[in-house]
Amino acid sequence: MNMGKGEEIPLIVAGRRGNADVLIAIDEAAERLGLSPGLALAQARAMHPSLDVVPEDASADAELLESIADWCLRYTPLVACDAPDGLLLDISGCAHLYGGERQLVADLGRRLADAGFAYRIAIAGTIGAAWAAARDGRPDTYANGEERNILCPLPLAALRLPPPMVASLARVGLKCIGDIIDLPRSPLTARFGAGLLRQLDRALGREHEPLTPRLPVAPYVAEKRFHDPIAREEDVLGTVEMLAVQLAAALERRGDGARRIELTLFRTDGALRRITAGTARPLRDPADMRALFAERLNALADELDPGFGFDMARLSVLTAESAPPEQIGIGAAEDIGDMVRLIDRLSARLGTQRVRRAVAQDSHSPEVASVSLPAQMTGTDDGWAAFHRYRAEVELAPRPLRLLARPEPIEAVAEVPDGPPLRFKWRRALHDIVAAEGPERIEGVWWQEEPDLNAAPPGNRARDYFRVEDKSGHRFWLFRAGLYRDLTRADVAQGAVAAPAWFVHGMFG
Question: Do 93 and 170 share a domain, yes or no?
Fold first, then answer.
């Protein structure tokens, strides 16, 4: 923005700090006028009434910093935010992919400039030295061992010290890092605390300073950069399969398989597209990985939006599990594999929470004998083989595959009190029973309290289950809640104890 005589109007960002409005950030024009962050807004307006002031939006700034951090994942997976306006990148082992550190800096700077951002980039052997050079020194690429030369001429604030500590050091004449770098350590620690020397040692490389990345680092990663951006789905899937071949070799060497895989596509304009797919069992086959992402891309449809194309793709195994070799060609291994692939494809297309599997539980009660879990969270057996084997060994009748959400009361007529029903009425329909099997009695376990005979039916009373078939051929699973042995006619007549009641719990077929 220009003033009337060709002078640029200074742009500043102001925000509330304590009881005063102060300058948070300034542009180059404001800096040339002698303004600086931390100056009171009222004083800045008194000096230059034509300032263009923008109110601070901390949440929007944080979101923008996070989005830039995501974009920087193209250079390294180890990216940390240094709020409010900095990023830390660990490029160890990554710079050679761009031809060296200077070429990486040039590529990063060009992209930031094209996006309209002002920036200062420095590379050094420690986080502290790089931070100090970028903010208070000369941004450049420095070799390991140059930390002392970088830091000596810089102000003590470059060590990321609290402002009160910097002010205390200034009062005794210590203003630059070089002023304290060779001083005796004990007096400094006694007067200013251990934090001062810890920051100095970290910046000099005497003490390791860890970098905590925003995202967990995947154990297996393969990536591909493109000279010409790709946008077609066929090209994306071909890239997935090519990268999956590299991952399969690494997984096989360690005896692992992928359980959760993420495809990250980097658009030329800096936007990211993340696509995640899970598997029901450890996976290595590149063709199966391609099929998973084909389903995910079909499900996403227009949400992928390649824009002007993707210039980089990364395939990461977020979760890996041990995958020992399997014998094939004998038994039902091929059938299990087909089932697992079907579960993976349906989960990729419909969502993992929509494809579920019943998992057997260690309980005699039908209501809690199984739970519904995402199919990819469970194994190939899920306890049902042992469940059915046990019931066969003790010669118990089969149960319906699906039960009602809650047992529903019915009106039943039985020939004898403890015998099977002869007919019952359910949902206004009368069913005459032509065949019945049972009972299968289910009672509470010994370590639980005695059944409450007055509880609302079916309550926790003993149950006698029957398999019955009506004249129409429909088969039901009925039970009687409560046993006549537990009460007398006097109890029922006086209403002191609830009489046994009949319920339908499920249907066969």
Answer: yes
> Is the dihedral angle over the CA atoms 405, 410, 412, 416 positive or is it negative?
positive
Same domain, 49 and 64: no
Q: Are residues 457 and 480 in the same domain?
A: yes
pTM of the model: 0.67
Shared-domain flag, residues 370 and 424: no
Phi-psi region of 473 (alpha: psi -120 to 50; beta: other; left: phi over 0): left
CB proximity list for 135: less than 8 A, separation 6 or greater: 86, 120, 158
Provide the strand spans (E) within 56-193: 79-82, 86-89
User: What would the pLDDT profile of 142-184 be if each residue is shown by its tens digit?
Assistant: 999 999 999 999 999 999 999 999 999 999 999 999 999 999 9
Decide: 309 and 231 in contact? Cβ < 8 Å.
Answer: yes
**CA quadruple 254, 260, 261, 264: dihedral sign:** negative
286: CATH:
3.30.1490.100
CA distance 263 to 290: 11
Domain, as residue range, for 371: 356-393
366 and 428 assigned to the same domain: no
One domain for residues 50 and 174: no
Whether 23 and 65 share a structural domain: no
Q: Which of 506, 254, 260, 247 is nearest to 369 (CA)?
A: 506
Q: Which of 135, 145, 171, 170 is nearest to 156 (CA)?
A: 170
pLDDT digits (tens, 9 = 90+) for 265-275: 999 888 889 99
